[in-house]
Amino acid sequence: MDLEFGRREDVRVRDYFAMIELKTGRLLSLACEMGGMLGGGGRKDLNTLRSFGHYLGRAFQLQDDLLDVIADQKRLGKPIGGDIIEGKRTYLLLTALERARGEDLRVLRSILKAGGRAGRGRLPRQVVVRRVADIYRRTGVLRDTERLVRVNTRRALTSLDLLRPSPAREALRWMAEQLVKRAS
Fold it and tell me: Which residues of the chain fall below pLDDT 50?
């Protein structure tokens, strides 16, 4: 799914959200729902858990894309900017493409055109990653992505409020809260 998505030139932000729903959102939704089934939950509880997983999956993927740009490389355990170098169609890149103008837009388009070869030419990888991260800052994409992580995490937590109090509910709440705090 990611590979086909990466080859398309007509990808928009709404397509990105549809893709992460199929990738991360569905996985977490089903995992939460299965946990509810194993725990003897009724239909209402299973729907609530599915909703929790949906929003948590969305928040997780957005946070993952964000960390690829802003994380401390040592804490992350891998070089940052992999998505940038690959020209991966993340929320950050797609939104920046909509907002950028002039030289910033040219830089972003050249990364997409490089198709995974950015950082192998005359500009070193670190320079390419730093330039794109600066564009993300200037266009407000980093701030907006952080906000979307919080919004989706809050929606996940709000859905948990529909479940009766239990240690399992609190464990899910803790997991969702850790997601927003994670740095790697």
Answer: 1, 3
Token pair listed for 75: 């804490």
CA dist 57 → 17, 75, 92, 97, 147 (Å):
11, 22, 17, 24, 15
Nearest to 112 by CA among 2, 1, 10: 10
pLDDT in tens, 60-96: 999 999 999 999 888 888 889 999 999 999 999 999 9
Domains of the chain plus CATH, in order, are 2-181 (1.10.600.10)
Contact 74, 67 (CB under 8 A): no
Cα–Cα distance measured from residue 85 to residue 121, given in angstroms and rounded to the nearest whole number: 11
H helices of the chain, where? Answer: 2-7, 13-20, 26-38, 43-70, 73-76, 82-86, 91-99, 102-114, 125-138, 141-160, 167-181
- The answer to whether 113 and 105 have CB atoms below 8 angstroms apart is no
Q: Is 164:48 a contact under the CB 8 Å cutoff?
A: no
- C-alpha 104/C-alpha 8 separation (Å) is 21
What count of Cα atoms within 13 Å lies in the side-chain half-sphere of residue 12?
Answer: 1
Instruction: Note the pLDDT of residue 183.
Output: 76
- C-alpha span between 13 and 68 (Å, rounded): 18
What letter would DSSP give residue 87? T
